Amino acid sequence: MDPASQDINLNSPNKGLVVDQSDSLSDVPVEGAVGNSANPLPPGLTEEEAEELRTELTKVEEEINTLRQVLSAKERHATDLKRKLGLSPLNELRQNLTKSWQDVQTSNAYLSASATLDDITHSEAYKKTQETLSQAGQKTSAALTTVGTAITRRLGDMRNSATFKSFEDKMGNLKIDVTPQV
């Protein structure tokens, strides 16, 4: 039994059985392919040496295909094991991000930037700027409160004016006229 023709999928019900590769296109000659008689032999290479190299190349390519199949089967098996253990791709991503963030936090660049930021926040210029902005915020808040109080007072004065009272009386009469009497 040729190992290259065996089903190597570890989870396959056909594991170890011979797989029919008669439909394979591996025997179809391709233009420019190794072994094509249209290709002249390289200088200094005999027909016998060329045939040995072609045979070795075929074996290496078969091994590569076998290894790809084995790797694919192993990857599927690993995915099944992860699924059974409850390890989802989202959990893996979360773990990778956590590890990456920890790596960033311990990196020299991050530590250097963090130290620089600490130096800035403890500098006199930063403290003066912070104090100035705080005072500006307090003054702005006080000014807005004063404006709000003035507007409220003006609206109250307007409501108590004769013009507004007259308008309010007319609107009240209109409401009585529109409202159906029971």
From TrEMBL:
Q: What is this protein called?
A: Tpd52 like 2b
Q: Where is the region Disordered?
A: 1-46
Q: Which residues form a coiled coil?
A: 50-84
- Which residue ranges have biased composition labelled Polar residues? 1-14
* Biological source species: Seriola lalandi dorsalis
Which superkingdom is the protein from?
A: Eukaryota
Q: What Gene Ontology cellular component terms go with this record?
A: cytoplasm
Swiss-Prot/TrEMBL keywords: Coiled coil
Similarity comment? Belongs to the TPD52 family.
Q: Does the keyword Coiled coil apply?
A: yes
